[in-house]
């Protein structure tokens, strides 16, 4: 990924060569001034003046064309870089969002756009003009060492002043950009829960929180803008003094007959040109600071999260082995030493209280999270050996929280891929929601909005189940599949489970209802992140029944002992 983020340096070499040509051609302007002042004004030659003027016009036109080509090349480099890197950034963003140790960084695309804009608008390429300052200084020294010395002093003072305030402004721009990111995240989160905020009268509190986060950005940007105004004023003074000093020094040298009047005017033009790279750099300071900060964040983020996909494995049969799996997130152990085995075509039900680790285990089985220790194997192969896209084809997933994407129902069922009508309808029939979809306006072309709230929870749940069954996956993972379903929806779910069992699909589900437990071959009970019971369904149910009877007996004995103990005390 680092190689992809490294800009195409060969293009920047060409951009630098264009810059060299542009600055060399620009020297035609002071040369024109020298010849006019030293030759044409004394010879009164109109032909020489016209010829020289046309030559200068031609050179400046060529310079303009080269500048256009340089800008066009920078633009192409920027967009080409974005096109190459964007798929990796998108994949990494989604891997990060799904990871157990999600660091909350979700602005990879925005940071990439920030870097692209800096390249496209020539911020970096114009920074390559800075070395040509040396060329102009050398020319001034060749004209006369005094002119070179005056230019060096003026340039040095301006550069040091800009560098001092530039560093302060860079820190403020980076700090304000970070605060802007936090404010945008807060605004996005509060917008998603707008109904909750309005219903519970939290708007003022949310506004106060947003103001608190955004205030830091405003303060830093205000201070940076204030420094920028002061710097611009002082820079203007220093540049004016430097140009005046060159003109005064040149006039003195002219009086002492060390240089011609043409060299005086040429020196003034070159001195004015000397400040151009500094001015561009100063004006681009904010963009450069934000672009480099975005580049560093992006590089660190992608290198940290990038997942290397290696093998294309054959379609699995559905044998699942979980071997001594432990899961730790931010120092907290969520699962400890989990082991079990599933044969192809079996249905495993997960039992346990809330927070026991059922959802965590499902995410590990999906390969979304990586265990801290142990292995999860599908048909004998470690899940880490699978390409993410390949594994997603063979594993269907119904998450605990149902989210549909903006688009048609057909697009949602087809997992946002090119819609294959036959596969979409097949998945809907398996999920027993085909008739329900047809009853909607436009049927499979019904458009789900950004929030998905133009469908009921039960409808969204059933469509999400069809999405999980799209393309006939061999392994199906269902997290609380009954949540949000009415009676007809639950009957459809039970029919789907019966069909999956008949088709010999491997199913792992959170089974909290007796009807769902009856559909399983094996049960795994979790308690505090550890296996409490595992085995065939009948065997686990017998153990649970015996355990409950024993607990009930103990409770009755304790209740009987309470009054007798009290009576003994009274006696």
UniProtKB/TrEMBL annotation:
<feature type="transmembrane region" description="Helical">
    <location>
        <begin position="236"/>
        <end position="254"/>
    </location>
</feature>
<dbReference type="InterPro" id="IPR039421">
    <property type="entry name" value="Type_1_exporter"/>
</dbReference>
<protein>
    <submittedName>
        <fullName>ATP-binding cassette, subfamily C/ATP-binding cassette, subfamily C, exporter for protease/lipase</fullName>
    </submittedName>
</protein>
<dbReference type="InterPro" id="IPR003439">
    <property type="entry name" value="ABC_transporter-like_ATP-bd"/>
</dbReference>
<dbReference type="GO" id="GO:0008233">
    <property type="term" value="F:peptidase activity"/>
</dbReference>
<feature type="compositionally biased region" description="Low complexity">
    <location>
        <begin position="547"/>
        <end position="558"/>
    </location>
</feature>
<dbReference type="GO" id="GO:0015421">
    <property type="term" value="F:ABC-type oligopeptide transporter activity"/>
</dbReference>
<dbReference type="Pfam" id="PF00005">
    <property type="entry name" value="ABC_tran"/>
</dbReference>
<feature type="region of interest" description="Disordered">
    <location>
        <begin position="546"/>
        <end position="571"/>
    </location>
</feature>
<dbReference type="GO" id="GO:0005524">
    <property type="term" value="F:ATP binding"/>
</dbReference>
<dbReference type="GO" id="GO:0006508">
    <property type="term" value="P:proteolysis"/>
</dbReference>
<feature type="domain" description="ABC transmembrane type-1">
    <location>
        <begin position="13"/>
        <end position="290"/>
    </location>
</feature>
<dbReference type="GO" id="GO:0005886">
    <property type="term" value="C:plasma membrane"/>
</dbReference>
<keyword id="KW-0472">Membrane</keyword>
<feature type="transmembrane region" description="Helical">
    <location>
        <begin position="261"/>
        <end position="278"/>
    </location>
</feature>
<keyword id="KW-0812">Transmembrane</keyword>
<keyword id="KW-0547">Nucleotide-binding</keyword>
<dbReference type="InterPro" id="IPR003593">
    <property type="entry name" value="AAA+_ATPase"/>
</dbReference>
<keyword id="KW-0645">Protease</keyword>
<feature type="domain" description="ABC transporter">
    <location>
        <begin position="320"/>
        <end position="553"/>
    </location>
</feature>
<feature type="transmembrane region" description="Helical">
    <location>
        <begin position="41"/>
        <end position="66"/>
    </location>
</feature>
<dbReference type="GO" id="GO:0016887">
    <property type="term" value="F:ATP hydrolysis activity"/>
</dbReference>
<dbReference type="InterPro" id="IPR036640">
    <property type="entry name" value="ABC1_TM_sf"/>
</dbReference>
<dbReference type="InterPro" id="IPR011527">
    <property type="entry name" value="ABC1_TM_dom"/>
</dbReference>
<keyword id="KW-1133">Transmembrane helix</keyword>
<feature type="transmembrane region" description="Helical">
    <location>
        <begin position="12"/>
        <end position="35"/>
    </location>
</feature>
<keyword id="KW-0378">Hydrolase</keyword>
<feature type="transmembrane region" description="Helical">
    <location>
        <begin position="133"/>
        <end position="161"/>
    </location>
</feature>
<keyword id="KW-0067">ATP-binding</keyword>
<dbReference type="InterPro" id="IPR027417">
    <property type="entry name" value="P-loop_NTPase"/>
</dbReference>
